[in-house]
Amino acid sequence: MMKNSSKNPRAFDVFGNIALVKFDKKTSVKDKKHFASNILKNNKPITTVLEKTGKFKGRLRKQETKWVAGEKTKEALYRENNCVFRFNIDKVYFSTRLSNERKEIAARIQKGDEVLVMFAGVGPYSIVIAKNSKARMVYSNELNKEANKYTKLNIELNKVKNKVILLSGNIKNVTNKIKAGLVVNNKKIPAKFSVIIMPRPQLRDTFLKQAFLLSKKGTRIFYYDFCKIDEINQIVNKVKKEAEMYKKKIKILKVKKAGEIAPYKFRVRVDFRVL
């Protein structure tokens, strides 16, 4: 996130060539144009300024934006962790604020790991891991068809076609197919994974049932949830309760705040191992 001068103390997110600004409702069109022109003038990599006009909606976490200045496009080209990603801001979910999360998890992947990424979007976790670890293979699961189109493109852009396999569709259905012997690109998908990453959206369902079905002894699971600061223990207890429900013994390895998503509300990551 970047900030402009004290005269216009608004913050904006940068997605490579695109700046995304959330203006106050009272901001005039003239002031928006003026602020946008300053962004373009002072940040040469940025060629487009968009206004965020709605919150993330639904299971696919889509948002609404409106063009303000610069090149008329919603196609972003964004770089992080030695990778490059192309995506349409309105059609898919992408968080630049999770860049360090992706880097941290990639550093914890061990040689030979078979990694499953649920809710993978356009592939940021999957591709960062593929390019920055010695994982044997990364399996990237996503429901959004538009996101899957960009995943295929990003796999090509980052030259990881031999290390990332796309598993499109609802993770519940995909789990059933895996258990039944799913084959993709002439490769049988493993029935169990050594690492499972779950950067899930804010949904009632935890999808831990699917994670436990696809886990084995020693599987490390990185589970994301959302809560207020004083509710973190409730998230940990929820994970433990579901493990007990599915007759899995686990060991909590780490609990951390992975960013503030709203005033006093946080994304939380719970790392644990299946025993």
Walk me through the topology.
Elements: E1 2-3, E2 11-15, E3 18-21, H1 29-42, E4 48-52, E5 65-70, E6 75-80, E7 83-88, H2 99-107, E8 114-117, H3 124-132, E9 137-142, H4 145-157, E10 164-168, H5 171-179, E11 183-184, E12 187-188, E13 195-198, H6 208-213, E14 220-228, H7 232-245, E15 250-262, E16 265-274
Parallel strand pairs: 3-4, 8-9, 8-13, 9-10, 13-14
Antiparallel strand pairs: 1-2, 2-3, 4-5, 6-7, 11-12, 14-16, 15-16
Which terms would index this structure?
single chain, 275 residues, alpha/beta, GMP Synthetase, Chain A, domain 3, Rossmann fold, 2 domains, seven-stranded mixed β-sheet, five-stranded mixed β-sheet, 16 strands, disordered N terminus
Task: Please explain how this structure is put together.
By secondary structure, this protein is an alpha/beta fold. It has two domains: 2-73, Met-10+ protein-like domains (GMP Synthetase, Chain A, domain 3); 96-274, 3-Layer(aba) Sandwich (Rossmann fold). The protein is 27% helix and 32% strand. The protein has helices spanning 29-42, 99-107, 124-132, 145-157, 171-179, 208-213, 232-245; strands at residues 2-3, 11-15, 18-21, 48-52, 65-70, 75-80, 83-88, 114-117, 137-142, 164-168, 183-184, 187-188, 195-198, 220-228, 250-262, 265-274. The strands form four sheets. It has a seven-stranded mixed β-sheet with strand order 10-9-8-13-14-16-15, with helices on both faces.
